[in-house]
From TrEMBL:
Superkingdom of source: Eukaryota
Organism placement in taxonomy: Eukaryota, Metamonada, Anaeramoebidae, Anaeramoeba
GO BP terms, alphabetized: protein ubiquitination; ubiquitin-dependent protein catabolic process
Natural source organism: Anaeramoeba ignava
GO cellular component terms, semicolon-separated: membrane
GO molecular function: kinase activity; ubiquitin protein ligase activity; zinc ion binding
Top-tier EC class: transferase
The name this protein goes by in its record: RING-type E3 ubiquitin transferase
Length: 146
């Protein structure tokens, strides 16, 4: 009975997808009939639609990146000075992150370095990440800010 149910759900999902795809096609067709100028860029360069989508996506990412971090947000980020004990406890973690290097300055983490951890759990030299976050409010590695 469960196989039959899964089979029905698969075809139901497939039909919903087909309906949505067909609706998208009809809307696009109507838009180009009403405004034929929308087709002109596509006729010049078939890759232009892809490039437009990529450009618009990049602009949305850049809007997030260009927002500098506030002093309050910066002050709540965890900061520590690396000691011998930290190194022993975090040895595997540090090795897994870019072979124990700060991805901004590419220098190895050393005992006595001040490090900051972002909400995504990536770590950086405090001075490096502060400079970075004053320009971009995203993690340099994963591009998120949680």
């Amino acid at each position: 009975m469960t196989i039959e149910l899964l089979f029905e759900l698969f075809f139901l999902g497939f039909s919903i997808f087909s309906i949505l795809l067909f609706a998208f096609f009809i809307i696009a067709l109507i838009r180009t009939r009403i405004n034929p100028e929308l087709l002109l860029p596509l006729m010049d360069d078939p890759n232009s639609l892809f490039l437009d989508i990529m450009f618009n996506s990049q602009n949305q990412i850049n809007e997030t990146k260009q927002t500098p971090i506030t002093e309050k947000e910066l002050s709540i980020l965890p900061k520590i000075q690396l000691t011998k004990e930290h190194f022993q406890k975090m040895e595997n973690f540090l090795k897994n992150q870019l072979e124990g290097r700060c991805c901004i300055c590419l220098e190895k983490f050393n005992e006595g370095d001040n490090i900051t951890t972002l909400p995504c759990f990536h770590i950086f030299h405090s001075s490096c990440i502060q400079t970075w976050l004053n320009m971009n409010k995203v993690c340099p590695l994963c591009k998120t800010w949680k």
